[in-house]
Amino acid sequence: MEHITLLIGIVIVTALVFDFTNGFHDTANAMATTISTGALQPKIAVAMSAVLNLVGAFLSVEVAKTISGGIIDESAGIRPEVIFAGLVGAIVWNLLTWLAGLPSSSSHALFGGLIGATLVSVGTDGVHGGAVVMKVLIPAVAAPVVAGIASMAATRLTYRLARGRDERETAKGYRAGQIASAALVSLAHGTNDAQKTMGVITLALITGGVVAPHADPPLWVIASAGMAIALGTYLGGWRIIRTMGKGITDIQPPQGFAAQTGAAATILASSHLGFALSTTQVCSGSVMGSGLGRKGGVVRWSTAVRMVVAWCLTLPAAGLVSAGAALLADQGDWGVAAVAILALGICGAIWAASRRKPIDHTNVNEAEATEPPGVVTAALQTVTPPPAGTLNPAEGEEPAPAASAPRATTATAAG
C-alpha cells in the first residue's frame, strides 16, 4: 500500500469541506419545523441535531459502499484529480443554493459532480449507469412522493385523533413528539449523508492504492466525516431553515410531528437498503404533505415550484461545473492549483453576498417580504380555501393569525 500523497490529502480535505457544507445545508431537514413551531430554541435545536448526526455516522456503511464502488467504477482509471473536480462542483452548487435559501439536494450535487468529472476524464465506462438509475434517479422521484403521501395521511390522522380535545394540551404533546421525531431525523441524516463523504474519501484512497478495492471506510474516515457534518449542522443553515419552516406552508405542531416522523422512516429505510437518496427532498416532500393534510392549510406553490426546479437542475448543474473543473485539473499540477484558486474565489464571493442580508438564529422565524402571486399560485388561489381564522373544535386545529390568510397563497422570498 502506498502512502497518502499530497493530492490525495487535498481530496480528503475537500471532501470534508463538502461534508461541512452538507451539514449546514441540511440542518433544515431535521430542525426547520421544530424551530418554526417553537418546540425548541434555534441554537438548542441545531446543537442536538449536530450530536445525533455524529452518532448516526457510526451506525452503517451501506450508503458509503454505494458511493465508493456502486456509482463510479474505481477500476476504470479514476484518478484523485477526478474526485477533486467532482467535489468542487458539488461544493459550489451547495453554496449557491444555500445563498438562495433553496433546500436542494447535497447528495445529488455530489453525484452530479462525480458523474460529470468522470465522464470528461474517463468516459462512460467509468459510470455504472444501472446503479445511477436504480439507486439515485428512481429514489429521487419516488422518495419525496412517498414521504409526502405518508405525511399527509399522518397529518390527517393526528388531527382526527385530537378532535374535541383541548388545544393547549395536545400542542404540548405534539411539541414533545416533534423533539423526538426531529432527533430521529437527525440520526437518520447521519446514517445517510455522512456516509456519502465517507464513500468519496474511501474512493480516493482506493484510487491512490492506500486501501484495497471494495474495502469498508477506515475508522478514521468515519470519525472525520461524522465530525465535519456535525460541525456544519451546529452552525445552522438558517436561510434554508427559514424557507422550509416558513416558506412552504404554515406549520403547526401536529403537522411538524407528522412530517418529521414520515421523513425519518423513509430515510432510515433507504439507508438500510443502501439507497443514497436526498434527505432534503424527503423532508421537503414531507413538509408539503403536511400542508396538504391539514384542513385549511395551503402550500405556497411558488416556493415549491422553485424548489423542484432546483432539484431538477442539481445533477446537471453540478456535473457541468465539475466537468469544467476536471478539464482544467487534467492539465497537471498547475491545473489542480487553478481549480482550487477558482473554487476559493467563488466560495468567498458567495459568502460575501450572504453578508448583505444575514439570517441567523435571531431572525430565522421572522416573516419575509411577500412576492406577487405567480401563475400557479393565482390559479390555486381561486379554488383553495384560506387557512381557518378561528379554532374549529370539530377538527381540533389551532387558530391561524388573521394576517396569515393572504400570505398563505403568496410565494415567499428565499432570503
Counting helices, strands and paired strands, the structural category is mainly alpha
> What percent strand?
under 5%
Q: Percent of residues in helical segments?
A: over 70%
Any low-confidence stretches, pLDDT <50, length ≥5? Answer: 369-415
Distance between the termini: 49 Å
Number of domains: 1
Biggest sheet, in brief?
none
Could you please describe the fold and organization of this structure?
- The protein is mostly helical.
- It has one domain (6-407).
- Helix content is 70%, strand content 0%.
- The protein contains 15 helices and no strands.
- It has helices at 6-36, 42-56, 62-71, 80-100, 106-121, 129-161, 167-207, 219-235, 238-247, 253-273, 279-293, 301-329, 333-354, 375-381, 404-407.
- Helix 3 (62-71) packs across helix 7 (167-207) and helix 12 (301-329) runs antiparallel to helix 13.
Give the helix/strand layout:
Layout: H1 6-36, H2 42-56, H3 62-71, H4 80-100, H5 106-121, H6 129-161, H7 167-207, H8 219-235, H9 238-247, H10 253-273, H11 279-293, H12 301-329, H13 333-354, H14 375-381, H15 404-407
Main location: membrane
Transmembrane segments: 7-24, 44-61, 82-101, 136-159, 197-215, 221-241, 304-328, 334-353
Pfam family, one: PHO4
Keywords:
single chain; 0% strand; disordered C terminus; Phos_transporter; transmembrane helix; transmembrane; membrane
Entry summary:
It is a multi-pass membrane protein. The chain is mainly alpha-helical and about 425 residues long.
